[in-house]
Amino acid sequence: MLPILPFVAWVAIVTSVVLLAALFALGELSPRALAILIAWCGAAAYGQFFGSSSAVSAAGLALQTLLAVYLILRWRLAQ
Q1: 5: enclosing H helix or E strand
Q2: Which residues have a Cβ under 8 Å from the Cβ of 1 and sit 6 or more positions away?
Q3: pLDDT (tens digit, 9 = 90+) per residue, 27-77?
């Protein structure tokens, strides 16, 4: 990661966690859907931050970004 922007790796995971909490609080997610999305978030974060290679880390970041985009779209379409 570039030392100029050290926080960029955390943007997707913070966005995902905040949107998961907000959507659950608004009643837009069932407990089953919440469990699946939390598992997705956890697996992506583990791959992103603890991956043994750069390919695993990149895949984790891609999955985390995909989850954040999915949650943003779900939130926007629910309104």
Answers
A1: none
A2: 8, 9
A3: 999 999 999 999 999 999 999 889 888 899 889 989 999 999 999 999 898
Answer whether 27's CB lies under 8 Å from 75's CB: no
Q: What is the CB neighbour count within 10 angstroms for residue 67? A: 22
The pTM for the full model equals 0.84
Burial 18-48 (b: 16+ CB within 10 A, else e): ebbeebbeeebbeeeeeeebeebbeebbebb
Do residues 63 and 40 make contact, with C-beta atoms less than 8 angstroms apart? yes
Both structure tokens of 71: 């949650």
Using alpha carbons only, what angle is made at residue 20 by residues 12 and 57, rounded to the nearest 5 degrees? Answer: 30
Helices (H), 1-79: 8-25, 31-50, 54-78
Closest CA to 41 of 60, 22, 28: 60
- Please state, in angstroms and rounded to a whole number, the distance separating the CA atoms of residues 51 and 49: 6
